[in-house]
Write a structure and sequence with these properties.
Order of helices and strands: EHEHEEHEH
Strand order of the largest sheet: 1-5-4-2-3
Strand content: 15-25%
Largest sheet: 5 strands, parallel
Helix content: 25-40%
CATH superfamily: Rhodanese-like domain
Mean pLDDT: 96
Number of strands: 5
Distance between the termini: 29 Å
Structural class: alpha/beta
Radius of gyration: 12 Å
């Protein structure tokens, strides 16, 4: 079962300075328009950059609505990743909560 994190939980992690990695898999133009931080690894590049994604700490992957991140997490899980969280609802849900 895929791990999920809500925008509220992610905000708490950020505020508490939890040790985790945040990865934005959207396209560059989407990130330029609005982003919530983290490393930028576009979805199309993620399989070529497996070495850039740690397996020894929690990793939150996000996109615009949470669909591409689910697909990316499924692909990564087939390569032995079991520490990945999908941002439920993506950036849209984050914006809906009025977090900045």
């Amino acid at each position: 079962m895929m791990l999920q994190i809500t925008p509220r939980q992610l905000k708490d992690w950020k505020e508490k300075k939890k040790d985790f990695v945040l990865i934005d898999i959207r396209e560059g133009w989407e990130r330029e328009a609005y982003n919530i931080g983290g490393e930028h690894i576009p979805m199309g590049d993620i399989m070529a950059r497996l070495g850039d994604i740690p397996k020894d700490k929690d990793v939150v992957i996000y996109c615009e609505k949470g669909v591409r991140s689910v697909i990316s997490i499924q692909r990564l899980e087939s390569h032995g990743f079991h520490n990945l969280y999908n941002l439920n609802g993506g950036v849209c849900a984050w914006k809906d909560e009025n977090y900045n």
